[in-house]
Amino acid sequence: MAEPLPMIRILFANGDAAFTRRATRILQKWDGAVIVANVGSEDQVLTRVEELQPDVVLVDLAIPDMAGLHLVTRLRTMLPQVGIVALTALGLDNQGWAVAAAGADAVVSKTAIRTDLLPAVYWVAQSKARSRNGSTTPGGPPCDS
Q1: CB distance 71 to 51 below 8 Å
Q2: How far apart are CA 40 and CA 20, in angstroms?
Q3: Are 44 and 75 in contact (CB under 8 A)?
Q4: Using H for helix, E for strand and C for coil, what is the string for 101-118?
């Protein structure tokens, strides 16, 4: 039997207060996750990610004052060990490949956060933990259909 994961530390990069509240409520239902920061600008995200070293960063691709794909690329370059879950309102058909190419580990449609957010965060955290330990994770990240 596999050992349980330690607490997953999440930084949420999102400028939409209503969406942030909704997603935070979903994440708080899971005892295995703690939100270490909610930030709404690129400078804040980059500063807080370096400072807090979260396990997973949730990046809203529509975050104000920045291009979400650009932020994903910068995060991947700065901290390759951090998991990145991109959140999109446009659907995976429109952005899925571009987000993956930018360096995200998983993509979740904002319309599917109730069912897909927790599995994506868990999978990404587990995958990153395994890669730090030198093993691999079969399969790919969860995505909505």
Answers
A1: no
A2: 10
A3: no
A4: HHCCCEEEEHHHHHHHHH
Instruction: Give the start-to-end residue ranges of the domains of the chain.
Output: 11-132
pLDDT at 128: 83
31-51 burial by CB neighbour count: b if 16+ within 10 A, else e?
eebebbbbbbebeebbebbee
Tell me the mean pLDDT in the region 123-128.
88
pLDDT of 110 > 60? The answer is yes
Looking up tokens 């939409």 gives 16
Decide if pLDDT at 72 tops 60. Answer: yes
Spell out the CATH class of 11-132: alpha beta
Taking the CA atoms of 73, 79, 84 and 87 in sequence, report the sign of the dihedral they define: negative
Amino acid 137: pLDDT: 46
Q: pTM of the full predicted structure?
A: 0.82
Closest CA to 11 of 40, 73, 25, 31: 40
